[in-house]
Structures
1.
Amino acid sequence: MLTPDRISLNTATVKAQWNLQQCIDGCLRHGFGGISPWRDVLQAAGVEAGAKAIRASGLRVSGLCRGGWYTAEGALTQAVLDDNFRAVDEAAAIGAECLVMVVGGLPAGSRDLPGARAIVEEGLARTLDYARTAAVKIAIEPLHPMYAADRAVVSTTAQALDICDQLGAGIGVALDVYHIWWDPEILAQIKRAGRERLLAFHLCDWLNPTRDLLTDRGMMGDGVIDIPALRRAVEAEGFTGLNEVEIFSAENWWKREGDAVLAEILQRGQSCC
Amino acid sequence: MLTPDRISLNTATVKAQWNLQQCIDGCLRHGFGGISPWRDVLQAAGVEAGAKAIRASGLRVSGLCRGGWYTAEGALTQAVLDDNFRAVDEAAAIGAECLVMVVGGLPAGSRDLPGARAIVEEGLARTLDYARTAAVKIAIEPLHPMYAADRAVVSTTAQALDICDQLGAGIGVALDVYHIWWDPEILAQIKRAGRERLLAFHLCDWLNPTRDLLTDRGMMGDGVIDIPALRRAVEAEGFTGLNEVEIFSAENWWKREGDAVLAEILQRGQSCC
């Protein structure tokens, strides 16, 4: 059971309904403990103004979504790195507990998965160097293997932790139950990660059937993921971050009134998490 | 480059177009080295008559698809086991080089992934006992993690090989590039499998974008999988089985004339594999 103060709202959950200020107001109205904005939502509000509004709210900021996409231009470019440095600055400005990294898929026209992974590792290393100067933590989000081509060539928690082990302090993982629930090694890898590497924990659910690869995520309790088991595992390692709810749902939750979505999240937090 | 004699036709590739006899005739007409029927296609022809037709063709039989589905009735039932024993008998009847196992997803209404995996392991053990008496090899097919809920709770090659190691001789893996290409450990796991455990190798491609979780597989060369690298890896272990082409494609290849599909497979075998 999750009390509201243990829950954070990822703004993508109501991306069709609310701008940043509406998300902040909604979180306060419903007693959420925190918020996690996407960069486009933050930038639409203006980074400085948005950061001021977030700080004034007193909400915790469980993350900023998202940096990464290192393979966007094929070889790692300065433009891609600069955008990641700006993401670090934005994370610092809003006091985010981490900058979540969706690392990027295969470059256009490429089938070279090892090559793409090398680009990603170099990009993460360069971003981490910068992030350390800003005291921002970098959180690699392993994405479900069905996104290996188009979004993230880091597909498992083990793979993300291997990168962390190479890069040292200041980097860890953002674990979203949607991406990791199927992994036979997940409990062992959560233990391996430990408190230092567990930087974010995201909630939603895997619907069966799933009708779209990207925008058919479920509300907690509507799918097949054993969320309490995963939450127990991260908390057993000492994770004290918030439970961030991030639901991409074009045909359901994005069509509902924002307050109804937040109310349902709190109810499911009590009954299903 | 694959010569026709190194290619096997999985009947699902032309499931909308051809029955078993038409598949056999098509394979012979185009010079394919083998065939791999699905059970429903074999049963539609009559197992005995179908087996006779296959043997008369002189085609190799790279597999029978599929046994498994151990979680279909929740706990493992005798009915499910009996169906698997029948699948073993059918594999023996057609001289299949292995019986491919799609092990089953979560039982209806369940979120208990470890429990489902235990059911599957027990089912595989019981089937293997029977298969050994019939000299049929059992091939666990790890399915892409996006099928963990509805089709297979065995999602990685490492997990499948762990089961094989527990069960001993007569069991191995069927590796389909579609299911394994994203796996950061795949080359190491192919090496771990070695010749004894590598029982089948299936080809198709991962399209980007993928529009449907089940029926939007691509023809080799139309997607992002580095097929030659995976083929080199299995052949480096001494795999001498056929390259079985299995493409589920509701909107494309299932709508084309069967001979055109087979001709395209041969062309792609030369240019993209």
Note: Chain B has a mean pLDDT of 98.
2.
Amino acid sequence: MDNMKNRQVILKTRPIGAPKLTDFNLQITAKPSIAEGEVLLRSIYLSLDPYMRGRMSDAPSYAPPVALEDVMVGATVCQVEASNNEKFKLGDWVLAYSGWQDFSVSNGEDLLPLGRSPKTPSHALGIMGMPGFTAYMGLLDIAQPKSGETLVVAAATGAVGSVVGQIGKIKGCRVIAIAGGKEKCEYAKNVLGFDQCIDHKADDFAQQLIDACPDGIDIYYENVGGNVFDAVLPLLNTGARIPVCGLISQYNATQLPKGPDRLSLLMGTILVKRIKMQGFIIFDDYAHRYDEFAEQMTHWLKAGKIHYREHLVEGLENASDAFIGLLEGKNFGKLVIQVNNPL
Amino acid sequence: MDNMKNRQVILKTRPIGAPKLTDFNLQITAKPSIAEGEVLLRSIYLSLDPYMRGRMSDAPSYAPPVALEDVMVGATVCQVEASNNEKFKLGDWVLAYSGWQDFSVSNGEDLLPLGRSPKTPSHALGIMGMPGFTAYMGLLDIAQPKSGETLVVAAATGAVGSVVGQIGKIKGCRVIAIAGGKEKCEYAKNVLGFDQCIDHKADDFAQQLIDACPDGIDIYYENVGGNVFDAVLPLLNTGARIPVCGLISQYNATQLPKGPDRLSLLMGTILVKRIKMQGFIIFDDYAHRYDEFAEQMTHWLKAGKIHYREHLVEGLENASDAFIGLLEGKNFGKLVIQVNNPL
């Protein structure tokens, strides 16, 4: 990194279908300067998350899209490189939402302090941050698992799914994991401790799910949609709960699938089996419960009850490629870009 | 009625699509006799409800189907015509689930006493019974209406919808009703006090709904499905709630509609707008709250805050035809068959 420059990944064109490298552009601008009351942030870690695909489109959503030529948005863990704000000192670690770039400026109001020397600062983007909090509230508040219930979790080695499944085990559920490929499935069983893991790429995936759920499905934590949901739907038990957290398999879709139209089938299933489906946006719905989550998760981590895996990619210049891979399930663990070395 | 005979409406054939008169048969059997501990019940009122269509099919559902040649099931308000059970006296009124017939026998355990001379005994099948309770819990527990919100209720003059809308008004909602035909819409506005009523048979129904909901839809109480839900879906606000109580428009469907497949569209809407959809079966989910409901509803009725309309059809021999009409929306108010005169 040239310390006088600021590299920024901007949205160049809105993707049609899967994003391509040419939808992004890495531009070099001048390192920003700060006014009175402001701090200059040096990005150390950038979180890449599936929701960002939605920000690249201008379809109506819960948050406005990134404008063309604007810097891609995203959560970051930064260090204060210069400060004109008495609340922040050089070297302080903070959680920010400064996007895909080396440097940014803040008045301090949108920053969450992470201390002088946090042990694992990047965890604020994963297990202790949005993905971990999402897993926690979606499972515990919306699904309310009971001991002995069957919990199916897709993307089960990912940033959210891996935590959902492990909390499910803590709560006494039988956890059936779904992941892509043999390596992830072995990890899901042997490290994360899930009861079974099914490879969604297998030809007989739906049959394997039937075999793995002889008592049906009580909770399906929805992260993916598509053929996984299709296989889950007929197995749902009366009173099943479905927190709808993500639908990664359909983010790149350009049109609806061919018929028949199963909307009425889904509605009928919800009615007859009195199912609860609920979407949620973690900080909009649950910001007031973050402290409870942080305390509980810290406890579980210290007790060795939750394993957390990061997929670290070096260099902002690799962010676009890594993000494209994320939508294809190529990451293995929480995807984080190391943007710069710490101070 | 020949007082030595028992007329029974039995399920003769399972309907394909809409039920036909020939799917039912009125058979005459002997009036049953009672053993020690039993009571003989004389049906005065029989409730006809859309859920009965599900019982006529052998597709998996939350309750077993009526067997061929068996008496059609249904809630009834009866009088005790003879008793070998010390808890019940001749002439007592009870709520039973004795089905489409003149007489039945009970050991008393499945009966809810309604007293010696209830003022409006048939109300136990409607406003004070399953439909009223369904309206109450679905709206208040699942949807949790807030003052100023827009509530859309379909089948708005029906047994459930009319109560949903009126409770919505009590809670300060703007209530947009949907009903079939001018007469029902006038009643919905002028008697039930709803803010607007839209005729779902109108060619420009979807546009009328858009115009009626300038601030979007916060709660949609789902009773019908089909083209009403299609029009509601794009108008749902962030955080909308959808209690799924019934889907009368699709009960007679023999196959899924043509594509495209909008299942992913519905899932995506639930996610992006963080919508809660929840099916429920009233006595399975909420039996423990019946007393609360009964007390509140009695209060509202006495205070004139809830209007209740019954559609009374004379004669068990007309039940099949009335039920077929119910699925077509021909009833106007809670459909009840007067099976016999009171003792």
Note: The two ends of chain B are 13 Å apart (CA to CA).
